[in-house]
Design goal:
- The protein has 6 helices and no strands.
- The chain is mainly alpha-helical.
- The protein has one domain.
- Helix 3 runs antiparallel to helix 6.
- The longest helix is centred in the C-terminal third of the chain and has 32 residues.
Amino acid sequence: MFASNSKPLKGLGKSVILGGGASGILSLFPGLNLLNLFFMLWIAVGAGLTIYLLCKENQLLRRSDSMLAGALSGLTGGGIFAILSLVNIIGINQERLEQMIEKARSLAPFLRDDSLSTMASSQFKTMMIIGVVFFVLASIIAGAIAGLIARKLFHHPSGSTHE
């Protein structure tokens, strides 16, 4: 069998929960959540926080460790957003859906009737659920990439100023 000489990362769970939790919570606030549309900003910030905390506790932080920790942070942040979003989606009844359509019509009078009828259809919830699943997958990927970038920024092995 393969022998591994790697040691477990100190503080991985705590770092992932803090970084991923922060990004998940920031992703829930209306207005602030729109910043995730720009390169998954809150997910990247959460992964960066995760790696920053890991770098403080671990002298040796490999690329694979950073990528895994960033992906776990993205999964945590995306998971928090997904769970709360799914609770809201499931709670949408027909009356609430009609109120949403009327609000959309008043805020954006340029919406076509076929767009509004799609919102009123039973497929709307399915489309929203698919969107949430896509967000979680994108959060994992964005977290992994942000973890690698954050490692470059925050990880300075003892005895050197850059890696």
